[in-house]
Write a structure and sequence with these properties.
Shape: globular
Distance between the termini: 29 Å
Structural class: mainly beta
Helix content: under 10%
Strand content: over 45%
Low-confidence stretches: none
Mean pLDDT: 93
Length: about 80
């Protein structure tokens, strides 16, 4: 099931580092399959994707959100 999340991209410095989306409500999602265009700290975006409960990561910062599409939000 796909969800849509608005928030800000953040680079977490755990291990080799991982990219995250911090939602407007404060929940942190670890991004899976994020393109280079999405990997920009501080960028405000709307991401559509699927929460993957069958995927584990080393960072374990929150649910894994497999990116299907995204839009950069204007200021």
């Amino acid at each position: 099931m796909s969800i849509t999340v608005k928030g800000v991209i953040d680079r977490k410095g755990l291990g080799s580092g991982t990219w995250a989306l911090v939602s407007e409500s404060g929940e942190t999602y670890e991004l899976k399959n994020a393109s280079a265009e999405l990997k920009k700290s501080g960028q405000k975006v709307t991401v559509k994707g699927e929460v993957r409960k069958d995927v584990m990561t080393l960072a374990m910062i929150g649910p894994v959100l497999e990116v299907q599409s995204f839009e950069v939000d204007g200021d």
